[in-house]
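#struct-help
A.M.: can someone run this one for me? Single chain, 403 residues.
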Amino acid sequence: MSKDQLIEVAKQNLAHAQAGTIQQTPDFLKVPAEHYYATERWQAEMDKIFKRVPLLLATTAEMPNPGDYKAMDAAGTPVLLSRTPSGEVQAFFNMCSHRGAQIMPEGVGNTHRFTCPYHAWTYNLQGDLTAIYANKDFGDLDKTCHSLTPLPCLERAGLIWVTLNQNSTLPIETFLSGYDALLAHFNFEGWHHFASQTVEGPNWKIAYDGYMDLYHLPILHKDTFGPDYPNRANYYNWGPHQRVAGPDPRLAEYQDHAPEDWPIGPLMAGVWTIFPHISIASFEGGGRSVMLSQLFPGTTPGTSITTQHYLMENTPDEAAAAAAKEQFKFLKYVVQEEDYATGLKQQKALESGGKSHVIFGKNEGGGHHFHAWVDLLLNTKDDDLAKVFEQYRSTHFGLTTGD
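D.P.: on it. Structure tokens below:
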């Protein structure tokens, strides 16, 4: 069923390519400039989006084996991910039950237990408190009541989601809106994590706007890769999540094939965005690879931090590793010196008050959809959160086909 959806998207892209058309929205979208810098708005986005919806915090490739863990800061929350001896991934606040110290330093590794660096309280991979340092001196304590505090967690399609609200009633499957079934065609479970790097950027929405924007490619990236890519895009939505794909005449090669004969590479091309903070851009040549960009708001409205993860379908040999290293270096340059450098200047200009709003054109349906979801969630009560994702699972916010 999910491959049928991929083929339908491909056929729509091909039809647009052959007709010289793209999707267009009925009207323009105006977004108030202050939405990119107002402190009250930013705090609401932190509280009602990043602290309420599931976030993609890790890939299976980063922690594939029992005993593997990942400790990280996620939107200001210290999180500890653990793969248990049974192979299940669990998530916890990275916080000792004794005095609240962070147990593990940020990074990935493999261990048999977690030991707090402050007073050496020890936990197993399932988060159970197993030992209290100098227990005789400390006093009797029921260890079963002082485990690590768990967070909702789901591993699906080689990706790992965590909700930062321990009391969340939003099922992660409901939030995914069926999008995970399509992402599963990457087969990320068996991929190789090559490297990670970080880039500082502007307000998280300025950065996210760029993930879905093909309109700028031949202009902003004219000296790098822009001339090789079209500036036209079609957008396909599953709940708040979007796949961005340009009209591609090369798909005509497969249009008469049976579903089982369509190669998966062309079907997964383009940019896959996972609301509210993930972009997956795929590459061909020398084996399939992707750059998974993990975007988080910074400590102020005008800042953000993006961790870029380079994943490869196959474990590279020496030559492939050298090529991957150069490509990853190039991708950081493009994002840091072209996309985010422009975004930081855009941030400063917006904060000047020179314009009251920004405009998204009829060809920028991805931005329409993204900002509609931001506004929707800011106005949704906790009790209605699951209903919203169920209601809008297949809604496209009025995208239509046009010239």
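A.M.: thanks! The longest helix spans residues 318-351.
D.P.: also worth noting: Residues 61-156 form a domain with the Rieske Iron-sulfur Protein fold (CATH 2.102.10.10).
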